[in-house]
Structures are given as C-alpha cells and as structure tokens.
C-alpha cells in the first residue's frame, strides 16, 4: 500500500473559483480544473498542476483538464495569503489557449516568479477589498 493518498479538495476548489473570477482569468474553464489534496507526498513543492495532454484528450474523448494538487503537509501550514499566492502561481502555468499544455516558468520573455505572482496577488487582494466594501454598503 502506498504511503500517500489523494482526496478531493472542495475548499481549494472554492478559493480557486474566486481567484479565477476576481482576476478575470477568462481563458480558464474553472469546471475543468479539479483540485486535490495529497497526503504523504515526498515532493518538496507546496502545490503542483497536472495537465491532460492532447493525445489523452483525443483518446478519451475529453476536453482539456487540469488537476491542481496541494501538498497538505506544506500547503496547509502556509498563511491564507501565501496559499492564495501559491494557487495563483499554479494558475499561471495554464496557457491562454487552455489546451492541456503547461506554461514553463520562463517562456517568451515572461516569467512565473515571485514578482509576477505578487503583481497578480495584489490585484486579487484589491478586488477582494472592493468586494468586501461593496458587501457592507
């Protein structure tokens, strides 16, 4: 029996949907990103995103899908803000074509790094503040 386990992560799914909406990431089909929580993984990452390559899509007759895996023993210990940054980082790996491919950390002069994540996180935080203010009015 393996030392690791995967389970659906509806709490992460809900947060991911909010991030996608708030940042207007219209190229992402939220229903085709499945969030899972892993326990016992030996990976050193906080989270990772998995793709369904085109050949698998064709063979199985499916649209593009992604799995966003949060690695429980690291991710769950982060602050909520850092968790949001991690989720944003993973979403940045989804290409504008939503094809089932993944964008590398460096591609066409753009980078997925702390600075680019922080820029989107600031936009997300500002949007959340606007929403919270309008909810109280």
What does this protein look like?
The chain has 137 residues and is an alpha+beta fold. It is built from 5 helices and 6 strands; from the N terminus they run βαββαβααββα. The chain has helices spanning 10-22, 54-60, 72-75, 80-91, 114-136, and strands spanning 5-8, 33-39, 47-51, 66-71, 106-107, 110-111. Strands 1-2-4-3 form a 4-stranded mixed beta sheet. A two-stranded antiparallel sheet has the order 5-6. Helix 1 (10-22) crosses helix 4 (80-91) and helix 4 (80-91) crosses helix 5. The radius of gyration is 16 Å and the shape is globular. The termini are far apart.
Short description:
The chain has 137 residues and is of the alpha+beta class. The protein is built from five helices and six strands; from the N terminus they run βαββαβααββα.
List keywords for this structure.
5 helices, 137 residues, alpha+beta, two-stranded antiparallel ribbon, 6 strands, globular
- Helix-and-strand structural type: alpha+beta
- Report strand order across the widest sheet: 1-2-4-3
- Total of DSSP H or I helical runs spanning 4+ residues: 5
**Termini, distance in Å?**
54 Å
Annotate the secondary structure layout.
Layout lengths: L4 E4 L1 H13 L10 E7 L7 E5 L2 H7 L5 E6 H4 L4 H12 L14 E2 L2 E2 L2 H23 L1
Helix pairs in contact: 1-4, 4-5
